[in-house]
Amino acid sequence: MFRRADYLWVVFDRYKPVDVAKIAKDGAAYITFVEQLPYRNNTILRMVTKPDVNPTTRRDGLNWILDFRSLPMRPTRALDVNAQLDRPNPNLFLPVSEAGRTVAVEDPEVGDYLLIVPVIPLSYGVYPERHYTDLDMPVTAQGVVVVPKSDGVRAQASRIGIDIDVDGGMALSKDLADQATALNSEDKTRILNIADWQIGKAEDYVRNKQALQNALGDEPPEARQQARFRLARFEFVNGFYPEVLAVMRTMKAADGEVENTPAFRALRGAANMMMRRYSEASEDFNHFSLANDDDARFWLAAARAKVGNKAAQAETMIQTGAAIRAYPRAVKIPLALIGVESAIAAGDDFGAQGFLDLIRRETPSTNELAAIDYMDGKLNEKLGEQKLALAQYKKAEESSSLMYSVLATRDRMEMEHRLGTLPTADLIEGLEKLRYRWRGDDTELDLLLRLADLYSDEKEYGTALRTLKITTSYFANDPRVDEAAGKMRKIFEALYLEDGADKMTPVAAIGLFDEFRSLIPPGEKGDEMIRKIADRLVAVDLLDQAALVLERQIQFRVTGVDRARIGARLALVYLLNRTPQKAIDVLHDTASVEAGRDLNTQRRRLEARALTDLGKVNEAMLLLGTDTTPETRQLRAEVYWRTQDWPNAARALSELVPEADTGSLSDVNARLVLDWATALTLAGDERTLVRVRQRYTGPMSNTPYKDVFNLITTPRERGAMDAQQVRAQIQQAEQFKSFLVEYKDMIGQKPLSAIN
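The chain above was modelled as a monomer; its predicted structure follows.
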């Protein structure tokens, strides 16, 4: 692929008819014209696109896919153009495997011939353009194009590369020298031409640095910024990145505007990048002054890959990867490894292999060989070559590189787990060991997040939450701490909003709830969590724990009517737990003028019951006043019953029993009739008791209480005492169904929160 005049050319070495109308329609947003030239042996397309829109190539099996984007026309991998001057007939040689046969094409616009050599390796092309006496070589995104300027120019592919010859030999000596000068000049203008920053020999670092510092002191004020910049670059090429940033802070203090220059931004971004300050590096390389610089585009993509989606940055890194070839190996290899990771994440095996080849050409050290083995494992895993991937991982595991041994062990175990050969319990055990072998960076963070997921999957929610809590503590300044916090909230909500904790024992559920109560969200969602946990605790009679949960809710979360409502629930818990004074205190503390009539009536009944428990019967009766609701009547009867005021108890119960002509009695109403009869008997009200017997003997005969009813209501001879009747009355008095028992029975069937 290449551009000539206004046309984009795409040439394939086999012929296939193309539906150009469909291409024009589908690509209407960026293609304004497309045609297929009439060649029998090759597929040749010419099209007109928007000036800044060019294609990049990728493959899907044997199919080539062109992606059109707003990008410059250039290859990802620039082919070397070597002048072979020692031959009888000097020529050019471009080393590349799998080059196709030469296609000779006449340009319909200009009328001259083009020699086009397609190549199979993805995104291999010519950059920058070359100009010689006999021919020109324009920039290509894929393949090689030769534009002859004299007769006898040939371009021929072999197994190892492409030979470009001219009859009688090329006139190369002068042209080659001129071109080398031009290319070297271009390199000198690169913002990150790192190889040229060394001063003196690297082993003489201290002496060279002192010379630069002395020279800085001798410079006039107007020249000191440039001298500082020279010192900062020297520190960078020698690997002293903190010193680079220190010098640059001095430069910024001397002149704040220097921060907006591309050279300053690029150097500071590179230093931040090498110190793994990826967010700061991204900010520097994203500066508007570096928008069109290939070096900066590569570094920006690499920095973003480390803090975000690696796959999304792969294409940019592959396109601009040639920029790092001339870097010193200490800079080149870490960047190339990021390129490998990103290409693998994007599924671009050719791109990944290109970066790996770049590393292999640098005579890798032991650690770098381990990195290659590990990356080969990831690449093979991505390609579905599972056996090869496992073999490469194990090879990296056995290396002396601690980092890549840890990474390879992790990925090998994960792969075996996916294949079903490593149980989850063994995977968890293995990952727990690994996180103690390598601490403090993204690797440990990844391990902790993964362990939390595994523990959660295994229903070990407490361990999952504690693992995530460690993560948020250890990595508080990491951008991904929000991910860990989000996982904690999700687990907590699944437990206490979606009823996951119901499968835990009540003690375990409240223990975990209390341990991680800081995760209770504000607002209705958090109140719902508290409601559910309190309901469950009361249901299993863990009243102290339920009271503590509700106390915190009242103290820190609710106001107004909600506070009055929760206060009533807490008062009931206190009454059930036999602490009536606490019930009274909380009712007074949570009083609200905004509470409705029903809620205030309920709160008065609870306070009256608490006063009764404290022996303050008169105060309780005064509080109940003239309220005639069934619940208050029952409580009034209970107060009289508990104080053995049988006449008043009988009178209060008479207001609760149904009429005798209502037919059969429910169990509740039958109990009320029996309680009334008992109170009348104990009050000695024989006259009323006779009427009760006459009216209710029929309805009570169909209930489980008919025998005891008959026994209690049967008249006895004056002066005689029936021991069996007395025992029945005492037993019935003890079984009186009180106001609090009603609540207990209700809670046995419904949650605490159902009371209001």
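The chain has 32 helices and 17 strands.
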